[in-house]
Amino acid sequence: MVKFLLNGLWLIGVISAPCAFANSTDTDVQNSLNVILLQQVIDKANAHDTVLLQDQPYIGNAVINKPLTLIGHPCSIIDAQGKGSAITIASSDVRVEQLTILNWGSDQYELNAGILVNDGMSNIVISGNNLTGDGFGIRADNTSHIEIYNNYIIGNKQFFVLDRGDGIYLKRVDDAVIEGNTIKDVRDGIYLESGKNSFIDDNHFSSQQYGIHYMYTEGDEAKNNVAVDVDGGYALMNSKRINLHHNRVDNAATFGVLLNMTNDSDIHANQVDNIVNPQPKMPTGDEGKSMFIYGARDNRIYENHFGHSEIGIYMAMGGEGNKIYRNQFINNQAQVKYVGDTLVEWSHQQQGNYWSGFIGWDNSGDGVSEQAYQPSDHLDRLYWLYPEAHFLLKSPVASLLRWTQQQFSLLPEAGVIDSFPMTSASRPSLIENNRPQSAQQLLSK
Questions:
Q1: In 3-state terms, what secondary structure has residue 271?
Q2: Is the dihedral of CA 203, 208, 210, 212 positive or negative?
Q3: Phi-psi group of 9: left, alpha or beta (phi > 0 → left; psi -120 to 50 → alpha; rest → beta)
Q4: 385-442 pLDDT, tens per residue?
């Protein structure tokens, strides 16, 4: 493999001076005498070469059509001039590292991206880049074995959130590895569709619709990710065998974790807090939900922390067939909202959940109450059916009816019941490493 440093004159050496053009306008960059076409640099390289770019601006809309390693330095700026994709990868065995990529197009129909990977490519590595633009940050379709790590991707916060491109968009991509990226001001941080066996670890999301959005995927794993100031944290839709664990969501509007028509998945050791909708459209059920289960079955939901949200878990439309146990429900306005007509048991092998505010007796001293717990009662379900009567919830009559129900301890005919509630919160190891504790810390990375 040949390693060389390219600019317009094929100079050898490393420029260590500060970036004189770092704060220049797009016009300044385009008119600079030092600006060269990135395509010319790529065309001069041989297959399997390592190309080290100079610390200077380059004009983008370049196509890498051979196996190549392209490495930048702090001032290697690729400017796409507001159109198309900045870099298109049209070969397998390509690495793109340490570039600053700006100003690509916003046409999502034409797949405008900071880095676009063409169909059929494999063994692609995209790492350590700074990308700022309107369309997709990184997009790949019909590929396999792509690694995307330690990139910083920023969208255009002036756009309405659904009009932005996704930070990372992978469609029919198998065996993707996505690690250590920081993504903000986009539509979805990471959007995966119809792929298999992705691994997503240690990414940070803010100011977007969803942190991770699975759609028709299979066999994926996501861990140690953090989402703050988002509409929703992690959306698992029409997927199966997802292992979602040790992730965090804080300060979301609609949900922390969504299971929508998703089956045979493990959701465990996640920490979800402060899911509150600041602009609810009452009485239409727009409350913030730590977890929303909709038509999902045969999933295992355990050792999660659901706290300080409007609803702990909202379950509807056939979500009864899941195992829910050893979770913590802490100070939610409503611990559970279940829309259904059957009695659902939320424990497994005599292990229930911890419910803040529940006081039961534990004569055996094993940490499990001998008294079952029903997190929502007949009155709750009545208000769900007739939300216009919600203002009566705290009336003296409602309080008397609740007290009367509790005294008789009748087995409910429908709703959620935990026959083995825990009497103390045994906090699981939720996040393996140190993670930002606030949105400000995340955005300052």
A1: strand
A2: negative
A3: alpha
A4: 445 444 454 555 444 444 445 545 555 567 899 999 999 886 544 444 444 443 344 4
